[in-house]
From TrEMBL:
<dbReference type="InterPro" id="IPR002010">
    <property type="entry name" value="T3SS_IM_R"/>
</dbReference>
<keyword id="KW-0966">Cell projection</keyword>
<feature type="transmembrane region" description="Helical">
    <location>
        <begin position="67"/>
        <end position="89"/>
    </location>
</feature>
<feature type="transmembrane region" description="Helical">
    <location>
        <begin position="176"/>
        <end position="198"/>
    </location>
</feature>
<keyword id="KW-1003">Cell membrane</keyword>
<keyword id="KW-1133">Transmembrane helix</keyword>
<keyword id="KW-0812">Transmembrane</keyword>
<dbReference type="Pfam" id="PF01311">
    <property type="entry name" value="Bac_export_1"/>
</dbReference>
<protein>
    <submittedName>
        <fullName>Flagellar biosynthetic protein FliR</fullName>
    </submittedName>
</protein>
<comment type="similarity">
    <text>Belongs to the FliR/MopE/SpaR family.</text>
</comment>
<keyword id="KW-0472">Membrane</keyword>
<keyword id="KW-0282">Flagellum</keyword>
<feature type="transmembrane region" description="Helical">
    <location>
        <begin position="12"/>
        <end position="30"/>
    </location>
</feature>
<keyword id="KW-0969">Cilium</keyword>
<feature type="transmembrane region" description="Helical">
    <location>
        <begin position="131"/>
        <end position="156"/>
    </location>
</feature>
<feature type="transmembrane region" description="Helical">
    <location>
        <begin position="210"/>
        <end position="233"/>
    </location>
</feature>
């Protein structure tokens, strides 16, 4: 009994798997520690087999040195794409951090080993809600589809022009900061007006010591107004998911 192995097919799938695993380890929602490493590896292997018909067509096996270079290039491409998606989704986490800062919750800041973020209550709450919405809405499927489509724009072993992803990362950073301000902006304005009102009261009647009410008032306003942001969060996650997929396509 003879067993014939198609080494070119195996090499192509292996290169695709390297790009997949580099992406999954960095990009949300798969980067969270809720996914064990073996599950991430199995998911990367399954996705590599799913795109095998696309990546194996026209693949020519290089020599040993060329194959090692291709492995490094695929890891870089997957890491760049994953970082780009992570950067876009950081807008929601940054919005939560702004709310914690202006609402007075940063005193309870701590590190969450599950989500691998350092922040207070709303930073972690916004991040967990965004991840939950990604799975509930099927947004993760859109991200995987965008990753699979990159094999058509960036063939395996071909590398990528670093000027293009760096430009995309720069634009995504500005968009992330703008999105964070747009999400948390209304609440920040209300909290600023509350501080200004307490300052005016203190100026008019210093004996009242209105600033002593600053923390309780801002915490109350934050707890009353944050539910309004959660109403809009599904649409925000949907928009950010499409932006992340578009940025991945732009890199190619």
């Amino acid at each position: 009994m003879e067993l014939t192995l198609d080494f070119e097919w195996i090499e192509a799938v292996m290169l695709a798997g390297v790009r997949m695993i580099a992406f999954i380890v960095i990009a949300p929602p798969f980067s969270t520690n809720a996914f064990p490493l073996r599950i991430k590896g199995m998911l990367a292997l399954g996705l590599a087999l799913a795109v095998a018909p696309r990546v194996t067509t026209g693949y020519v096996s290089p020599d040993t040195g060329g194959f090692i270079v291709s492995l490094v290039l695929e890891f870089v491409v997957g890491a760049v794409l994953g970082f780009l998606v992570m950067l876009v989704f950081s807008a929601i986490q940054s919005a939560g951090a702004l709310i914690d800062l202006f609402g007075g919750f940063t005193l309870a800041q701590g590190f969450d080993p599950q989500l691998q973020i350092n922040g207070a209550q709303f930073t972690r709450l916004f991040q967990m809600t965004a991840l939950a919405l990604l799975f509930a809405s099927g947004g993760y499927q859109l991200i995987i589809t965008g990753l699979a489509n990159t094999f058509g724009a960036i063939p395996i072993g071909g590398g990528v022009d670093l000027a293009v992803p760096l430009e995309a990362i720069t634009a995504a950073t500005g968009q992330m900061l703008l999105s964070a301000l747009q999400i948390a902006g209304p609440l920040i304005v209300v909290l600023f007006l509350a501080d200004a009102g307490l300052g005016l009261i203190t100026r008019v009647a210093p004996a009242l010591n209105a600033f002593a009410l600053g923390f309780p008032v801002k915490i109350l306003l934050t707890l009353l107004l944050v539910p309004l942001l959660f109403v809009a969060l599904p649409e925000i996650v949907n928009s950010i998911t499409r932006t992340a997929v578009g940025d991945m396509a732009g890199v190619g």
